[in-house]
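S2.1 Query sequence (S-layer family protein)
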Amino acid sequence: MTFWRSSIQLVGTSPTRENPSGLFTSTGTPDRFGQGSAPAGNIQVRTGQLQILDGARISASSQNQGLGGSLNIMASQGVEFTGTSPDGFFRSGLFAESRSEGEGGNIHLSAPNLRLDNGATITTETASNNGGNISLAIADTITLRRQSTISATAGINSGQGDGGNIDIITKYLFAIPLENSDITANAFLGTGGNITITARGIFGIEFRRELTPLSDITVSSAFRVDGVVTINNPDTDPTQALFELPTGPIDASRLVTLSCLPGSQNNQFIVTGRGGLPPNPTTIHTGESPLEDLGSITLESPNLQGSATIYQDFSTAGNSILVEAQGLVMYSDGRVSLIARSPHASSSSIPWLNPQCRPTVIP
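Output structure tokens follow.
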């Protein structure tokens, strides 16, 4: 059975609320077990926007001994499954389950976005046989809200059967941790299924060994071996933050500038703010991590206090040439001044790293 529509919206249940609205190829009737062992049929849907609301469904379920059918859904604009019937008995979503002794069917869904909300589900669960498989190829995001589920659990009536497999490929998977939305491939007497999720990011839901009131990913088995959960992050490259170190020795002389040439018109003093040293002497600092201020200095030695009027004759008035400071003066109020020449020291007593950098002393 194939459906081609620009958009499809399925809403609610029958007027008596005994049957859900939807598309069906199920064996038996939706509200009671049928007889025989015929498999359920298959449904293909090709549409733009697909909405299933308030207990409606697309179902290829088996309600007798037959196999569940297959659902193949392609929605080019997006998919939304929301809500339940007013009494909560029918959940909105996709169903390829087996309510009796048959195996679950398979579901494949591809769309740019998928949203399950307020109890909606995608399920290939079985009562007492192997669970079916679920494949979701969602280009952008999958969102699970308010007790929504994706389930391939087997043996929900404490029966036989291995859990089915769930394969999810998407960019981001979102859930709210406290809303109890689950992705499960559990089993009771059989082996747990396998869940593989390939996504850049998974938020609000995580793997746990058993179901909890939180949003869980589980592949547990009550009496047999648990399944395996595999999380793939295709765009995560641990080498992206690494860079190749130089193999040769570093010439430290290239990182130091020695020719200060006092009195040159090309000399500059640039204040670039706090933050440490620049990478080399010819560039300014561009970092964003400033150094912490050290606070004011309290002078305790009486030898450092006193008048500095003896240096007032070193005025720069009428002197158009700037020279490097030869000393400093500390005033009694804590101020510090740089001076061109200190009367307490000769220029020859100053240790210069480069002989070319000796200052020009101005009388």
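The mean pLDDT is 79. The first strand starts at residue 2 and ends at 4.
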